Amino acid sequence: MGRRRGVMSEGLKEELAKELGFYDVVQKEGWGGIRAKDAGNMVKRAIELAEQQLANKQ
């Protein structure tokens, strides 16, 4: 099975990393250097933002 194409843009991921305080790790080590907890928090925040956008459209 191949790798799935990313759903989040690089810009959004960078913005979330800055907001959550681990962008310095991304700059030094790349996305593979972040902790699983940080990745989970990033996904959680992205879901919150998407839900807010959907709620505003309705």
Report on the architecture of this protein.
- The structure is a single chain.
- 69% of the residues lie in helices and 0% in strands.
- The chain has helices at 10-20, 23-29, 36-57.
- The chain is an all-alpha fold and 58 residues long.
- Helix 1 (10-20) crosses helix 3.
- Belongs to the alpha/beta-type SASP family.
Q: What topology does this entry show?
A:
Elements (H helix, E strand, L loop, with lengths): L9 H11 L2 H7 L6 H22 L1
Helix pairs in contact: 1-3
Give a quick set of tags describing it:
69% helix; elongated; single chain; 3 helices
In short:
Keywords: DNA-binding. The chain has 58 residues and is mostly helical.
Provide the domain count: 1
Spatial shape? elongated
Helix-strand topology string: HHH
Termini gap: 37 Å
